[in-house]
């Protein structure tokens, strides 16, 4: 039996998508300021996208599409992760360990994208 990252990715997307609605303020703060409109709109839209991707990863019939969408979404939200790292590094209010987490998180996007593409390949 092959290992599939689908359950872990599904849990990640479903959990993060839920948090976009339960506690939207932290997500609002990492929306790149260059984007037009209100940050909350992007927070909710990305939450819906994460919930949809997580659901697609759970359902075997849509898992291939879910893997494709997961990879695309991970690439799409990368600028927000960069914005968060920049903001946290510059902030006097963020503790050094959290600054390290924000920086360490950036290169983790690559193995997550690779995992999403693996889900796509393995799906029937």
In a few lines, what is going on in this structure?
The chain has helices spanning 6-22, 25-28, 39-58, 63-76, 78-90, 96-122. The protein is mostly helical and 124 residues long. The mean pLDDT is 93.
Written description of the protein model:
The protein is mainly alpha-helical. It has one domain. Helices cover 77% and strands 0% of the residues. It has six helices and no strands. Helix 3 runs antiparallel to helix 4 and helix 5 runs antiparallel to helix 6. The longest helix has 27 residues. The protein is globular and about 50 Å long. The two termini are 14 Å apart. The mean pLDDT is 93.
Question: Low-confidence runs (pLDDT<50, min 5 residues)?
Answer: none
Give me the secondary-structure category. Answer: mainly alpha
- Give the SSE string: HHHHHH
Give the termini distance in whole angstroms: 14 Å
Mean pLDDT: 93
Query: What is the radius of gyration?
Result: 15 Å
Number of β-strand runs? 0
Largest sheet: none
Given the structure, what is the number of helices?
Answer: 6
What's the number of domains? 1
Strand content: under 5%
Task: Give the overall shape.
Answer: globular
What proportion of the residues is helical, as a percent range?
A: over 70%
Which key terms come to mind for this protein?
mainly alpha; 77% helix; 6 helices
Topology:
Blueprint: H1 6-22, H2 25-28, H3 39-58, H4 63-76, H5 78-90, H6 96-122
């Amino acid at each position: 039996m092959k290992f599939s990252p689908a359950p872990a990715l599904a849990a990640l997307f479903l959990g993060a998508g839920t948090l976009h609605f339960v506690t939207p303020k932290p997500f609002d703060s990492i929306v790149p300021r260059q984007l037009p409109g209100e940050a909350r709109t992007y927070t909710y839209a990305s939450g819906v996208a994460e919930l949809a991707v997580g659901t697609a990863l759970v359902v075997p019939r849509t898992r291939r599409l879910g893997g494709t969408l997961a990879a695309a979404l991970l690439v799409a939200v990368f600028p927000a992760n960069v914005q968060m790292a920049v903001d946290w590094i510059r902030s006097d209010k963020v503790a050094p360990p959290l600054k390290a987490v924000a920086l360490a998180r950036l290169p983790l996007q690559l193995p997550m994208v690779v995992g999403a593409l693996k889900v796509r390949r393995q799906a029937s």
